[in-house]
Write a structure and sequence with these properties.
CATH class of the largest domain in chain A: Alpha Beta
Number of helices of chain B: 17
Structural class of chain B: alpha+beta
Oligomer: heterotetramer
CATH superfamily of the largest domain in chain B: ATP-grasp fold, B domain
Structural class of chain A: mainly beta
Helix content of chain A: under 10%
Helix content of chain B: 25-40%
Number of strands of chain B: 22
Largest sheet of chain A: 9 strands, antiparallel
Strand content of chain B: 15-25%
Strand content of chain A: over 45%
Shape of chain A: elongated
Chain lengths: 168, 501, 501, 168
C-alpha cells in the first residue's frame, strides 16, 4: 500500500505492507529496517536501522503532530485513495482556511493592531490575547489583507473562536 | 505544636508543602477552586474544601472563604506558598489574630520589604549597595548632568511619563551626556507630553543572583547560599542553578553577609530571599526581598540536603533552626528547569489542554516537584507552571549532563511544555560555559530556533513512519471516510507549526 | 576510551545503567527478548536489537546471539548488570578476548568467589571469620560430639541427605548433644536412607549485612560502607537500609576491613559486595562475595552521593577510582523498598497483567529506579522485580517517614505489587525501632495481616461509593445485561481476596 | 436509585440520585457529604466528609476490586433490578464455582499435593506453580473433597486454566 508523508514541505514516498510480524516498510523503493510498535494510544517505539526512537503522536485536524526525540513536526499522511483523488484533481485544499486566525486558548482580547482592509505581512502582530496571567502576542501566519475582524477589545473569546480572516 | 496545616495555594507548591507536612506527621487541608477539584494537591491532602469558582479572585484570593475553611477544618496553621496571599500582610495579620499560626514572616517585615522605597531605605541603613539613581523625576538639564556625573558612567536615562523604550538612552561617557539628555527630554515630551526623566546607573551584562536566608525567633539568621537566576524572559525565570558559575568566593561572601544584614535589620522570621543584580564588574546591588518561599528553593535544598519547608514549620512553631551557619556547607551543584505549559519555541505561547500521557524521568540525582497528573485538564485560569525538574551532581558538568538526560526522558502528550526549550538552552555553549546573564536568552533565541530547524533526514523518516502507523491504527479503529469535511488550520497549525519547521 | 556499551540485561538495572552512560556521553545498546520489545530499557537505549524468544535461556542467556549483536552494533564494552550472565566467568573471558571491555571483575575473581569452598579458603587466609562447622558429612557419634564441643553452643545439626527441616536440630548445650545427634541421625536415616549429618554454629537472631567494596587496577581498594539487608523472605531481600541500625562503629570498622582484605586477596577489580551474617552477640561471619553490582546499590549511592555505575565504567576504562577511602564519609540515611509484582499479603504470590495506570511519588529525597511503564505487560518470564523506591533523609527517622509518604503516593493499577506490604512493614514498631533480623518478616507476617483486617467503617463506605460510581460509569458506556453469564472465581477472587478481608 | 454494596461480608445500603452537580448519596438513610470524581478510567478522587481519598478500581468478574488509600477490597454492587431479582430468588449464585481452582498466572505445575477423592482443609496446600523464577505454593480457598485434577506434573498451564475442582 502506497503512502505519502508530507513533512517540512518535503514529500516522502513509502510503500507499506502489513505482514504477520508487523509492517514491512519501503522508502524510496529501499526496504527499511523499521519496527514501529504502539506503547499506549499516543506513544510509539520505533526501531529504525537499530536506533531506538520514542515517538509521541496526536491527531491535529488532518495532520499528525509527531514528536521524535523531542523534535515536533506536523506530518500529513495520504493513503492510496487520497493519492488517487489528488491525481484526478479532487484533493481538498487546505489553502481555503489558511487565513483564518482562531484563538488557541480561551482568553481576553486586549489589543488589536489591524483594521479591516489593512495589509499584513507574515509575522506581523495582529492582536494580544490575555490568558494564564500573561499577555500573548499573536502574529500573522500569512501575508495578505484583513478581510474580517470578529472580536472586540475587552471581550472574552473561547478556544477555537474565529478572530480574524486574512485574504491571502 | 502545629498539627494541621491549611495550604492556601494550589499546584506544585501546594503538593510540595503537603509532602513535607506528611513526613513530619502533620495533617494537611487543601483548598481548591471549582476548576481544581481533581488537581494533585486535592488528591494528596488529608482534607480538601472548595473555596470558590475558577477565577483566583473568587477562590485562592477569597480571604473570607479561606478563613471559614480554617474554622471548619480546625487547621491550626496556614502555609501560603508563593504568589496569591503569600505577601499579603493583612491576611498574615488576620490569621495571627485568629490564634492560627502564620507560616511566614511577621506582617511588619512583609510591609517594609513590600514597599520599594522602604526596602531601599532599610538597605541603605546596613550599607547594602543599591542601584544609584534618582528617585524623583527631574526636568532640569544642569541637575541631570550633575547627577549623571555623580552616579558614574554608563548611565541609563528613562522617561518619567511612560515606558516602551521611548526616551530611553544608555550614555557611556560625560561627552555624550548633554546631547543625550536633550534628546531624551525632547522625545519624551513629544511622546508623553512630559519631559521629566529619571537617571540611574546602567548595569552592564547584569546577573540576577539571590540569597536564601532563614531566621528564627531566637535571634539566629543564616544564609544557605546563592542561586543564579539569570535565565529569564520578561523577568520570568526559567532555569536556575547553584552555585552561580559567575561569582567568586569574595563576592559570595559579600552577598551572603549583605543578605543576612538586611534580614536581621527588618526583624525577619522564616524563609526569605534577598535578590541582587550583579554587573559584569562584579558589583552587587540590592534589588528586593521576597518575604516567602521562592519557586526555585529546591536547588538550595539539594546542595544543602535540607528540607526548607520543614524548617519553616519548625520556626513557625517557635523552635530554633535545626542548623547553624557554621554547619552550612553546600555540596555539589544543582540546576532547576521550570516546566511551563508554554511553547518555548514560539514566543512562550501558553498551551492548554488535557495531559493525555506522561513519562517522567527518574533515577539518581533527579527530583521532580510536580503539580500535574495524567488526565488533568490544564486550564487557562492560573500560572502556567506545571512543575520543576531538578538535577543534582557532584560537579556542574554532572548536574548539566544529568538534567539533559532527564529532559530527554521526559514526555508529556497533550500540551506544549518548555521541556525541549530547556534542553536546548542547557546544551548551548553559553550555558555549558557558564557564560550568561539576564539578556542571554533574548540573544540566543534565534540561534536555538535555527538549531531546531536543522532536521536530520532520519528524523523526518522516523516521524513519517510514526504518522503512517498511527494513521493505520486510527483507520482500523474507526472506518475512515475520506470525503468527510475536515476542519483545518487555526493558528496552532498554521502559525505555530510554521515556526517549528 | 569506552564509547558504546552493550547492556546484557533487562528491566530496572538495564535502565539504571543506560542513564549513567548517557550522562557521560556513552551510547548504549539494549538487547531484548521478543516479550520485551516495548520494555523501558529498549525505549531508552540509543540502539536496540532482538536477542531471541521470551525464555531467558533463548535470549538474555543466549551468548552466541549477544556476541553477534556486539559485532553488529560496534559496542566496545559490555555491562552485565546483575543476574543473567553477570557472574559467568566464561562469558567475561570471551568478551575480553574479543577486545571488548568487560565491565566487571576479572574472570579469575569471578571463579574464585563463585566457588563456595574456594571463597571460604580465601577468607580464612585473611583471617575473616567464617561460620564454624563441618564441610564434610559425618556419621560417627563421637566425632560429632567432639566437633560440636569445639564449635561451641548453640550448634545446628543438619541432615546431609536432604532438606525441608527434616533431621534439623538446634542444640543449646553439651548436655543435650548426644541425644540430639542420635535423634537427628535416626530421623535422617528414615527420611533419606542416609544418616550422615553436618554440624555448624547456630547463629542467634542473625542479621544479613553486606559491604560495598570497589577496586581499581591501580591498587586502590575502598569500602563504601554497609547495607542492612535482613528484611528477607526465602532469602529474597525486600527492604534494605544504610547505615544498619544494628551495628556499632567498632563492628562497622571490622566489617569494612574484613571486606577490603577479602577484595584485595582475590585481586578484585570493579564493584563487589561482601556478604556477612552477624549474630545477636555482634559476631560477624563471612558468607560470600557477589562479583557484580548489587540490586540494592542505590542506598549506598544516596549516602555517599556517588554514581557507582559511572565508577564501574571509569575503572573498566583503566582509570583510577574518583574517590579515596579517606574521602568516603556516608551522610544521612537511605532505605530501599523493592517493588515486586507480588502480593505481599498473600504469600508473595506473583502477579502478571497490564500496567493500566501509574501514579509515581516524587519530591525531595525520593528516587525511583524504574523498569516499567504505563501500558506495559508484565510477563511471567522474568524476575518479578519492577523497580526500587529509595528514600534519603538526614536521619533514619526522616528516611522512614519519607518512604512511608512516598509509598502512600504510589498507585499502580493492573497488577499487585509489594507497595502496601512494604509500607506496613516500615510502619511496624520492629522496623521503626531498628529491632529486626532475618527472621522478623516471618515472625510479624500474621500481625501485619491482622492489622490489614482492621478496617474502618469509613474505608468500607468509601470503597462502596467508588464501586457504585464505577458501576454507573460502566453501565453508561456499555448497556449492561444482567442475564449475561459471568465467569467467576479463580483463586484470584476466591482465595486471594478471602485473605484480604 | 437504590444500591447494595457487599464488602467484607457486610451489606451496605445506599440511595443514589444523579443531580446536576454529581451524585447525591445517602447511606443508611443519612445523606453523605460525598463527592466522587473520575481521574482516569481506573482512578477516582473521593472527598467524603472533607477527607480526601484516592481510589483505584478495576472490574474483576462480577465484582470491583477497590483500593482505598492502599487497602484493597472486593466490592459487589447490586442495583435496583438485581435487588429485585434477588427478592424473587433469581440471583445468580457464586457458590457453583467456588471450588474451581484456576491458574492465576501462566507457569509450570511442579508438584501436586492432593489426589482425586482426598479431603482438603481450607488453607491446605494443593500444588506448586513455578512462574517468574519462583515456586508458588497454591493453597485451597475452601474445604471439601477433590473432585477432579486437570493437570499433570511437569506440564505448563496458561492463565485461567482450570487446575482442580473441589466439591464443597
Amino acid at each position: 500500500m502506497k503512502f505519502q508523508a508530507i513533512i517540512d514541505e518535503q514529500i516522502l514516498n513509502f510503500d507499506v505492507e502489513q505482514t504477520a510480524c508487523g509492517l514491512d516498510i519501503s522508502f524510496n523503493d529501499n526496504n527499511l529496517d523499521a519496527d514501529c510498535r504502539p506503547l499506549t494510544s499516543n506513544s510509539f517505539s520505533l526501531i529504525l536501522n537499530g536506533k531506538s526512537h520514542y515517538l509521541t503522536i496526536t491527531e491535529n485536524d488532518n495532520s499528525f503532530e509527531v514528536t521524535v526525540d523531542q523534535h515536533t513536526n506536523l506530518v500529513k499522511v495520504k493513503d492510496e485513495t487520497e493519492l488517487l483523488l489528488d491525481k484526478f484533481g479532487f484533493s481538498d485544499s487546505d489553502e481555503d482556511h489558511a487565513g483564518e486566525i482562531h484563538a488557541q486558548i480561551p482568553g481576553l482580547v486586549t489589543q488589536i493592531y489591524a483594521e479591516i482592509g489593512s495589509s499584513i505581512e507574515k509575522g506581523q502582530k495582529l492582536f494580544i490575547l490575555e490568558a494564564m496571567k500573561m499577555e500573548n502576542e499573536i502574529s500573522s501566519p500569512v501575508s495578505g489583507v484583513v478581510k474580517n475582524i470578529l472580536v472586540e477589545i475587552g471581550l472574552p473569546v473561547e478556544k477555537n473562536d474565529l478572530i480574524m480572516e486574512i485574504e491571502i | 505544636m502545629i498539627r494541621k496545616i491549611l495550604i492556601a495555594n494550589r499546584g506544585e507548591i501546594a503538593v510540595r508543602v503537603i509532602r513535607s507536612c506528611h513526613e513530619i506527621g502533620i495533617e494537611t487541608v487543601a483548598i481548591y477552586s471549582e476548576a481544581d477539584r481533581t488537581s494533585p494537591h486535592v488528591l494528596k491532602a488529608t482534607e480538601a474544601y472548595c473555596v470558590g469558582p475558577a477565577p483566583s479572585s473568587e477562590s485562592y484570593l477569597n480571604v473570607e472563604k479561606i478563613l471559614e475553611i480554617i474554622q471548619i477544618s480546625g487547621a491550626d496553621a496556614v502555609h501560603p506558598g508563593y504568589g496569591f496571599l503569600s505577601e499579603n500582610a493583612k491576611f498574615a495579620d488576620t490569621i495571627a489574630k485568629m490564634g492560627v499560626v502564620w507560616i511566614g514572616p511577621p506582617s511588619d517585615a512583609i510591609i517594609t520589604m513590600g514597599d520599594k522605597m522602604a526596602a531601599r531605605e532599610l538597605a541603605k541603613k546596613v550599607n547594602a549597595p543599591i542601584i544609584p539613581g534618582t528617585t524623583e523625576p527631574i526636568s532640569s538639564l544642569d541637575k541631570a548632568i550633575k547627577i549623571a556625573d555623580k552616579i558614574g558612567y554608563p548611565v541609563l536615562i528613562k522617561a518619567a511619563g511612560g515606558g516602551g523604550g521611548k526616551g530611553m538612552r544608555i550614555v557611556q561617557s560625560a561627552q555624550e551626556i548633554e546631547d543625550a539628555i536633550n534628546r531624551a527630554k525632547s522625545e519624551a515630551g513629544k511622546a508623553f507630553s512630559d519631559d521629566r526623566i529619571y537617571i540611574e546607573k546602567y548595569l552592564e551584562e547584569p546577573h540576577h543572583i539571590e540569597i536564601q536566608v532563614f531566621a528564627d525567633n531566637h535571634g539566629n539568621v543564616v544564609s544557605f547560599g546563592e542561586r543564579e537566576c539569570s535565565v529569564q524572559r520578561r523577568y520570568q525565570k526559567i532555569i536556575e542553578e547553584t552555585p552561580s558559575p559567575f561569582i567568586d568566593d569574595k563576592l559570595r561572601k559579600q552577598l551572603n553577609e549583605t543578605a543576612i544584614n538586611i534580614t536581621r535589620e527588618c526583624n525577619y522570621i522564616g524563609a526569605g530571599t534577598v535578590e541582587f543584580l550583579v554587573d559584569k564588574h562584579k558589583n552587587l546591588y540590592f534589588l528586593e526581598m521576597n518575604t516567602r518561599l521562592q519557586v526555585e528553593h529546591p536547588i538550595t535544598e539539594m546542595v544543602n540536603q535540607i528540607d526548607l519547608v520543614k524548617e519553616q514549620i519548625r520556626v513557625a512553631d517557635g523552635k530554633q533552626l535545626s542548623i547553624s551557619q557554621n554547619e552550612i556547607h553546600p555540596k555539589g551543584h544543582a540546576i532547576e528547569c521550570r516546566l511551563y505549559a508554554e511553547d518555548g519555541f514560539n514566543n512562550f505561547a501558553p498551551s492548554v489542554g488535557n495531559i493525555l500521557e506522561m513519562d517522567i524521568p527518574q533515577g539518581l540525582g533527579i527530583r521532580l516537584d510536580d503539580g500535574i497528573r495524567t488526565g488533568q485538564e490544564i486550564s487557562p485560569y492560573y500560572d502556567p507552571l506545571l512543575g520543576k525538574l531538578i538535577s543534582w551532581g557532584n560537579t556542574r558538568k554532572e548536574a548539566m549532563a544529568r538534567m539533559i538526560r532527564a529532559l530527554s526522558e521526559f514526555h508529556i502528550v497533550g500540551i506544549e511544555t518548555t521541556i525541549p526549550f530547556c534542553k536546548m538552552f542547557i546544551q548551548h555553549p553559553r550555558f555549558q560555559n557558564g557564560d550568561y546573564g539576564t539578556k542571554t536568552l533574548e540573544e540566543i533565541k534565534e540561534e536555538l530556533l535555527e538549531t531546531l530547524r536543522e532536521y536530520s533526514d532520519d528524523l523526518n523518516v522516523a516521524a513519517s513512519i510514526g504518522a503512517i502507523q498511527k494513521n493505520l491504527l486510527t483507520d482500523q479503529s474507526s472506518a475512515s471516510n475520506f470525503t468527510e469535511t475536515k476542519q483545518i488550520s487555526n493558528w496552532a497549525t498554521s502559525g505555530r507549526k510554521d515556526n517549528l519547521r
